[in-house]
Amino acid sequence: MSVVYRVALVLVIIGAINWGLIGFFRIDLVAYLFGGQTAVLSRWIYAIVGLAGLISIPILIMRFDEDEDLDPHTRIDRNPSYGMEIGDEEDFTAFNTTDVLKEEKKDSHSKNKHHNRK
Q: Which domain holds residue 39?
């Protein structure tokens, strides 16, 4: 997000807070701070916040995966890496399970008995 959009978004948030204060407490903070609603400075601030709202409209349709300041080593991307950070994980599928080892031991034991009888 560019600097212009960030500044516009901050101004829109300030405007939203001012509208919330008006709605909940009947306090217009901008008018209070800058000499009333009809004061020139207050009208300029209202106009700037209004322009910031217009500038912020494209943020609604912006793709959020275009964040340029995202660290490439984070796992927030669409294709996360499940590998270990210190190296590749071992493939344990080549190792026999305990059931297979028991069967092999039983077979070798029975072959040894059969071999010892001869």
A: 3-66
